[in-house]
Design goal:
With 421 residues, the protein is of the alpha/beta class. It folds into two domains: 95 residues, no CATH class; 248 residues, Purple Acid Phosphatase, chain A, domain 2. Helix content is 34%, strand content 15%. The strands form two sheets. A seven-stranded mixed sheet has the order 4-5-6-3-2-1-13. Strands 7-8-9-10-12-11 form a six-stranded mixed sheet, covered by helices on one side.
């Protein structure tokens, strides 16, 4: 039997089988790709397949039929090889980068608001070979309980596969876990946490609890006020009346601090003491800067603006705790800025070591100088104390990391939450 006869009988089923295999591999590959560089093998595979199909159906006068069939099959085979090779490499890499648990103590890290953007954190877990017992503290607004539907479940499912434990404070752009019936309670690092049995590595702190991280004790207080409350109500966006710490929570925190003589290693809060407000992140400050840069001929159309609802009672109460308590360090989020003011660390995008074991000091080492905290920044008038909104999360594209810039508060895609502070 000649090659021509073989081609006549086998070409169509072979091509059909190759096309089916390619489609299945593409479906799997697209789900696994989260970076642009991951698409290079896919592009090579698709290109090889297309060239092969085009070559098969090309004009026979340009090339003998047996050569055309060989080119078509070779092109499709190269496409499948490239696409399948990408999947094999992905699986091997995934297995190799998943570290085995050992007897070493857990590592602790800390970061700020995520608002459903976890690509940076996912990459951090992989590059640092974290283990399930390692912990990343998220200082509120993780966004895991924003929609309260299958979209939240899909995000939790993805995060539950990470080789890390996420310890989240309550923010102001998510429902409290104690309000969600699927959450139970258990003990973690000396305090009570909320968790769902389906996602055992996704934990939420309980306000007023004291947690022990690597021998250091931290008081946790989540929650803050949303300055875009009126917009959320008018546009029927998710909003929760219990977003700020209640009077009962405040009383519990003060009682536990008093029992310790107002001494503690540190605070973990969502918002900050009022003396540390980052005025450069206020909407009024940024709006004025933007208007000064705009050309009179290129002024943007005015967007609908809602009255700003301002309530600084939580920040004022935290300031009272700051003044009355002997503490070592204070970590907070909410304002979407990475900044340090003395012993107060504002966290957003950066992921930093937290409560790392300090090496024993050398007897001859000089004591570091103790620097005084800088004076608090000047407060703006009440009408200008609105806070810059966070990035409006979009569906994470497999071709690039989600955009992490901060669009105006009025932008809302309908698929992801507007993440105003």
């Amino acid at each position: 039997m000649t090659l021509m006869e073989i081609a006549e009988y086998c070409s169509i089923p072979v091509i059909a089988a190759l096309c089916y295999g390619l489609v299945e591999l593409l479906k799997r590959a697209f789900r696994s790709c989260t970076r642009l560089k991951s698409f290079f093998p896919l592009i090579a595979g698709i290109t090889g397949t297309v060239l092969g199909v085009v070559g098969f159906f090309a004009d026979p006068e340009l090339m003998p039929t047996d050569s055309l069939l060989g080119a078509a099959l070779a092109g499709m085979a190269s496409g499948l090889s490239a696409t399948g090779g990408h999947q094999i490499v992905h699986q091997i890499t995934k297995k190799k980068t998943a570290p085995e648990d050992d007897d070493s103590p857990p590592k602790f890290y800390i970061t700020g608001d995520k608002h459903r953007h976890f690509d940076r954190l996912t990459e951090f877990c992989q590059t640092h070979a974290l283990r399930k017992k390692d912990v990343i503290v998220i200082l509120g607004d993780s966004g895991l309980n924003y929609f309260e539907d299958k979209r939240d479940d899909a995000l939790k499912e993805r995060l539950s596969r990470l080789n890390v434990t996420l310890f989240s404070l309550h923010g102001n752009k998510e429902n409290r876990p104690e309000n969600i019936p699927t959450y139970g309670i258990r003990t973690f690092c000396g305090g009570t946490v909320y968790y769902e049995p389906r996602y055992p590595n996704l934990l939420f702190a309980k306000d007023g609890e004291i947690y022990n991280f690597n021998g250091k004790e931290f008081m946790v207080v989540g929650g803050a006020h949303s300055v875009d409350k009126i917009r959320c109500l008018e546009e029927e966006l998710p909003f929760w009346e219990d977003e700020m710490p209640s009077e009962e929570t405040k009383a519990l925190v003060e009682h536990r601090l008093a029992a310790r003589g107002y001494r503690i290693d540190g605070f973990l809060t969502h918002t900050c003491p009022i003396s540390c407000l980052p005025t450069e992140m206020f909407i009024s400050t940024k709006r004025a800067a933007d208007e000064s840069k705009q050309s009179p001929r290129k002024k943007k159309k005015a967007k609908p603006e809602y009255p700003i609802d301002i309530d600084r009672s939580t920040e004022q109460w935290l300031e009272k705790l700051k003044q009355e308590t002997d503490y070592g360090v204070w970590y907070c989020g909410h304002y979407h800025i990475d900044k340090q003011l003395g012993d107060v660390h504002m966290m957003h995008k950066e992921i930093e070591p937290f409560c790392a074991e300090e090496p024993a000091a050398s007897p001859s080492a000089a004591e570091p100088p103790i620097s005084a905290s800088p004076a608090p920044e000047a407060q703006e008038e009440a009408t200008a104390t609105e806070v810059q909104t966070a990035e409006s999360p979009t569906v994470e594209s497999p071709a690039a990391e989600p955009q992490e810039t901060e669009p105006p508060a009025t932008v809302h895609t309908g698929t992801e939450p507007p993440s105003s502070t």
